[in-house]
Design brief:
The protein has about 325 residues and is α/β, with parallel strands linked by helices. The strands form three sheets. It has a five-stranded parallel beta sheet with strand order 2-1-3-5-9, sandwiched between helices. Strands 4-8 form a two-stranded antiparallel sheet.
Length: about 325
């Protein structure tokens, strides 16, 4: 009797939504558990790092790793799981693109630590104490991971075989990817396992998207009463749909919210944020600088709007004056 293929799940810098996406397979997860041997899933089962280190190299068929790489421990685990796995899959927007944690690349590590432990409105810390990387307690040496200078996507640290996009990925895509792995029906290495089409093609509002747009102002969806059937762009609301890969089943636009770009770009787009920004700016009606500035004032956070999930992987990547040593 052939042993079951070994599968691993691991969680780095992310919110935990990707772990929920695996659970959201619902009864289908029973079929997965029956077909594979899960050898690492810290969120759901008790595994130790030493157990993984003891495994032969390439003995894990596939690891689905979610989350960006922010700390030394996450970097070490990425290298370990790369060595132990035949296929390493960047699972979700944070692993694929850096995700929302990647927005920290606008600030230095010192700025972040100072704010969190000293300046945040809810922080009471008169001694300005911070976590220590090393500490001695009753003769025992305790250590904590070190935050790196910048947040990185998984493939900026180790080689990645496949990508499953989304914040989080849908159960449908997750099931299809696991099925392809188990059946050996894998596309070329480096493939994003989702349709290579723009989200607009799957959006229920696409018939109302005008061929020509002329923006006089940008509205924020939570401050505006919107037509539930009309294209968001036609209503002056920023929507990342034209610059974003489909495959999410358009759940946000169907639910009354514009696309925020979590599935990343299609293969034809190099920089998702730049693509969306250039498209919108090219359709601003105003021609004078003052009027253009008034229109753009409706987008108070351009980086958070256009690079919400992809700053770490974009052409910008990080603030130019952040240290490069020991990323």
């Amino acid at each position: 009797m052939n042993p079951k293929p070994k599968i691993a799940f691991y969680w780095c810098a992310s919110c935990g939504g990707c772990e929920e996406a695996v659970v959201d397979l619902a009864e289908d997860i029973l079929g997965v558990v029956e077909a594979v041997d899960i050898v690492l899933w810290p969120c759901a089962m008790d595994f130790k790092r030493a157990d993984v280190e003891a495994m032969p190299d390439k003995s894990i068929v596939a690891t689905l790793l979610n989350g960006a790489i922010r700390s030394s421990e996450q970097e070490e685990m990425a290298h370990l799981l790369r060595r132990k796995s035949q296929y390493l899959i960047a699972y979700g927007a944070c692993a694929q693109l850096g995700g929302i944690p990647g927005l920290a690349n606008q600030f230095s590590r010192e700025q972040l630590l100072r704010y969190v432990y000293e300046e945040a409105p809810t922080m009471v810390n008169p001694e300005k104490a911070r976590p220590r990387l090393q500490f001695q307690n009753n003769g025992h040496a305790l250590t904590l991971p070190e935050l790196r200078n910048v947040v990185r996507s998984l493939d900026q640290v180790v080689e990645v075989d496949y990508y499953i996009p989304g914040c989080p990925p849908t159960p449908k895509l997750t099931k299809a990817a696991l099925g392809a792995l188990l059946e050996g029906k894998l596309p070329p290495k480096g493939t994003v396992l989702a349709p290579d089409i723009a989200l607009c093609d799957q959006c229920s509002r696409k018939s109302t998207k005008p061929a020509d747009l002329s923006f006089t102002q940008f509205k924020r969806p939570h401050l505006t009463k919107l037509d539930p059937e009309k294209c968001f762009l036609a209503q002056g609301v920023v929507c990342m749909g034209p610059a974003t890969r489909g495959g999410c089943e358009a759940v946000c636009t169907s639910g009354g919210m514009p696309c925020s770009g979590c599935f990343g770009p299609t293969s034809r787009v190099r920089d998702q944020g730049a693509k969306a920004l250039s498209s919108l700016c090219a359709n601003i009606a105003a021609k004078e600088e003052k009027e253009i500035a008034q229109t753009l004032a409706g987008i108070p956070d351009p980086v958070g709007t256009f690079y919400r999930y992809g700053l770490a992987k974009s052409l910008l990547r990080r603030r130019v004056d952040l240290p490069t040593a020991r990323e």
